[in-house]
Write the structure tokens for this entry.
Amino acid sequence: MCATAVLGLVAPAAAADRCGKGPQHPGRAENLIVDVRATKTTCRTARQVAGRYRDRSSRTPLGFTCRSTPGEAEATVRCKRGARVVTFRLIVF
């Protein structure tokens, strides 16, 4: 007789790529975008989403739906489109 063990295999969660800072306005420091992260999308797209969120106050930049969690001097923003996720911190001066 042969005994077969069945292992429960679970796919690991997708790790977020660290994309650094978002687009900045030359000579202006207000509304600084930092700690941009991309999951299942490119860093280029993640930085574009962050910049459009800040510049246009759009809650749906590039088709991503964004929600923010305000803090003392910054907000943490999470934008999602399907399985694609972009997160960043928006520091307000």
In short: The beta strands are 17-20, 32-39, 65-70, 74-81, 84-91. The mean pLDDT is 83. The first helix runs from residue 43 to 56. Residues 17-91 form one domain.
